[in-house]
TrEMBL record, chain A:
Protein name as annotated: Uncharacterized protein
Annotated source species: Engelhardtia mirabilis
Automatic annotation (TrEMBL), chain B:
Record organism: Engelhardtia mirabilis
Similarity section: Belongs to the sigma-70 factor family. ECF subfamily.
GO biological process: DNA-templated transcription initiation
The keyword Ribosomal protein is annotated on this UniProt entry: no
Descriptive protein name: RNA polymerase sigma factor RpoE
Keyword hit for Transcription regulation: yes
Extent of Polar residues compositional bias: 1-10
Highest rank taxon of the organism: Bacteria
Molecular function GO terms recorded: DNA binding; sigma factor activity
Amino acid sequence: MNTDAEPDDSRLNLYGDLIAHLEGEPTSAALETLRREAPLEFDRRLAHVRQVLAAAAQARLEPLPRASLDRAKALLADERGRGGWRTLVGKLVPPIADPQLALRQQVAGLRPYQALYTVDDYDVDLALDESGALIGQLMHRDGDELGAARAVLRGDDGRVAGTPLDALGCFVFDQLPAAPMELSIELGTTLIVLADVDPNR
Amino acid sequence: MSSSSTTTESGARPGADPPAGEDDQLFAGVRDGRIDAWERFVVRFGPIVRAAARRAGLRGDAVDDAEQSTWTVLLRHASHIREPRSIPAWVITTATREAWRMGSLKAREHEVGQGRRADLGLPTTAAAADELPARLEQVQLVRDEVARLDGRCRALLTTLFLDPATPSYEEIASRLGIPAGSIGPTRQRCLARLALALERRGFDDDSF
């Protein structure tokens, strides 16, 4: 498999000359010219080749023992069986006639989008404020403290943004990726996932 | 032209890593909990994970423990990672962090201070531990780009730099069906291709 559809011949020749130079062969005329006329470029290219050769010299790695692979496969089954992590998928609460969000932040102006998700012992409020930022709040139904948590927003365009939750469980995303988005909240070993977050709906 | 027929204990060919573009499919399978994807993932990154443990000074069972600890962390956070281009860096950073953590535990078990850490082959400073991921990322990048080279260069550089068996030039010439005298010039040309490919991948960039 060739990653170079049309190899840059001059750069290939340059790197070839640099490798030969580093390995003690006579310096080519082209390389001498480069060293004389563009010493910084020469130094940069030389340093790159040195690093490549150094990394290549270290690239021979111990093969993976069969026992390691077997242990890793058993680990997958064990983690799944043990429930090493919880993934909870939030359910969008059906819209009600006059939704009142329990957001503790003051939001000025109209909210064109607001949604309430419920999952296990948690509620997640989402809304779009007048600036287009997505604001949200995670709450435990019994009022338990949340501890350190982080929200990650993934868009349909592949963009990802993350932000920590504050002490009240609130978070804000100023720049939104393309909808529909997926919002996940990492809370210790629990992951709360809200799929299909779409302020356009 | 035949490529290296040497296999590792786990059945993988050295340097047989998939091109970087297939990492997204591979990791999607891991996130979905597919055992076949997980097995390929472990085969792909297992060597660099174990290398991280060894270069952090661990030996024997401690290398195995650090490796399994790395996989545990990966499995528990798999759903958080959506950009496969960051997978190699994430794996290596996690592996070095787990190795460093185990090394610190080992130092405490032996009740050694900073001065004797070197005797145990452990990094003596946080800076030394911090340099390790960057160096290993370069190694993994070299392995990935060798796998992406054209057939002749891929076969030659795999045999020269990745094959654990370290064959002689005569053995290489025989295996690849080329004159032994042409290995040197071909090697230089292939290394030049590798250097160019690595430049395009940001090999020297701190932001890798």
